[in-house]
Amino acid sequence: MKIKLPPIRILLTFVGFILINLIGCTNKQEVYHQVFQLRSTDLHVRAEATHAIQKIGVDTVPALIKILDKKESEYARTSAIWLLGEIGEPVDVVASALISLLDDSNLSVSQTATTALISMGEPAVDFLVQALEHYSTNTRIQASYALGEIGKPIEKIMPTLIDNFDDPEWNVRRVSVRGLLNIGQPAVHLLTEALIKGNKETQRVARIALDQMQNRKR
What we know:
Blueprint: H1 8-37, H2 43-56, H3 61-66, H4 74-87, H5 91-99, H6 107-120, H7 125-131, H8 137-150, H9 154-163, H10 170-183, H11 188-197, H12 200-217
Helix pairs in contact: 1-2, 2-4, 4-6, 6-8, 7-8, 8-10, 9-10, 10-12, 11-12
């Protein structure tokens, strides 16, 4: 009795499906293995894992986000944060995860998250602007600082930083002035406008910013 074999196209499709799933399992195992290595106390092991994770890329993001938990060690968390900033995609997932750490009680974690957002650049700007509405003072300070460091697009960042001039926290206002000083001459027009049209506190801070900008030219 002859056995009727399925057409070759169906066989190839089936084999391809099996291979894709096997590769997927292998990749998943490799991802979790490398991310797990970020917990190692051995700097060399963490460095090798970091290099491997960079090569794998975006597929490591869910596992990296899991290691941001406060129960993890500082070096595991900061390594994961740095890698998320380097990978940078998907932008909404990565930026949101990093912004959630701007108010972390561990200063090294919050500062590394700020640096990672800066390294993401313009794709992170919209999320940082939204973070300025956060109830946490530290989140608003770090978000303002990151926006000033990114600096572009200036048509979005300049008005946002000037809007911070009436923030109830002085450090938010101070960091916003610093960001506008980084932008420099392009900010003068909006600062002058704020000096004329803003409320009392906005006018006061705009004057400080313009004076400091003038002093920098000397």
